[in-house]
Design brief:
By secondary structure, this protein is mainly α. It is built from 4 helices and no strands. The mean pLDDT is 94.
Length: 134
């Protein structure tokens, strides 16, 4: 358990990103039967969050340190890419008071940044460990 603390943190942050983007800090909803661009940003964050969650779970379950390091690198790169989804890859609403700008964007940036920090340190430690095992 103690050896997997970073992996567990990655999994929980990825799960928070996935579930939170659909619930707690979701983007703007439907307006007159149409969805705004921020809705598609939310869908992209949710999808990538789900993929990261699966990678983090595999990182916890697998034993090979080289594979764990590779998964951590993948989680790091995916988390960094999620940071740029709201407002860069997908446009958000024009008013700063809209939910997508006031709630969704900051939450995604903070959670994805924490996830990237955890996965980045996990990657470095994993590469060092894998190198020592050879």
């Amino acid at each position: 358990m103690k050896k997997n603390i970073i992996g567990i943190a990655e999994f929980l942050l990825a799960l928070l990103l996935t579930v939170g983007s659909l619930t707690i800090f979701k983007a703007c909803g439907e307006h007159d039967g149409k969805y705004m661009a921020c809705h598609w940003a939310q869908n992209a964050v949710t999808l990538i969050g789900a993929v990261i969650s699966i990678q983090a779970l595999l990182r916890i379950l697998l034993k090979n340190s080289g594979i764990k390091a590779g998964l951590a690198i993948s989680i790091f790169l995916s988390a960094v890419s999620v940071i740029f989804i709201p407002g860069h890859v997908f446009s958000l609403c024009m008013m700063d008071t809209m939910r997508c700008i006031s709630t969704f964007k900051p939450a995604v940036i903070v959670i994805a940044s924490l996830l990237a920090a955890a996965a980045g340190s996990d990657s470095i430690l994993g590469i060092i460990k894998a190198g020592k095992e050879k």
